[in-house]
Amino acid sequence: MFSPSLPFALADANKAYVRYCSSDAFAGDAPPSDATDGWHFRGQAIVHAVLSEMTRAHGLLFGDTLVFGGCSAGGRGAMFNLDYVPDMVPFGVKVVGLLDSALWVPPAPVLALTCSRPPHDLASHALHSTWS
Fold first, then answer.
1. 43-58 vs 73-81: helix axis angle to the nearest 10?
2. In Å, how far are 8, 66, 80 from 1, measured between CA atoms?
3. For the chain (length 132 residues), average pLDDT per consecutive 10?
4. Concatenated DSSP letters of 70-93
5. How many helices (H) and strands (E) does the chain have?
6. Model pTM?
7. Cβ 68 vs Cβ 81: under 8 Å
8. How far apart are CA 103 and CA 97, in angstroms?
């Protein structure tokens, strides 16, 4: 699908690769604070900035199609942002999602301060309790 040679559907499409750098699945929008232990969580702002730059510098316009997606944690971020993306691009840009391995496992919260299990045991417990 992404092969640079024809006849693949996206062979002559413009592509933007954004490295996973936000550590919040591209979902956060919080400044550093006591609640975040001083960390920035600006993933959604990164998505907005990339789409703004694509519009400004590469002419994302009415009638264009934007395939918005990602894989693994980026796929989860794409899944989270997909409903917001049409509001981040010019009117009339068709937005479709391509989510590759966007696994979302909602394990029960684990409080490290009250838990005596080692980390590998916690992960195993969380996965098994989620799927049981």
1. 80
2. 5, 15, 23
3. 68 77 82 86 90 91 90 84 93 90 64 49 48 44
4. EETHHHHHHHHHTTTGGGTS-TT-
5. 3, 2
6. 0.68
7. yes
8. 15
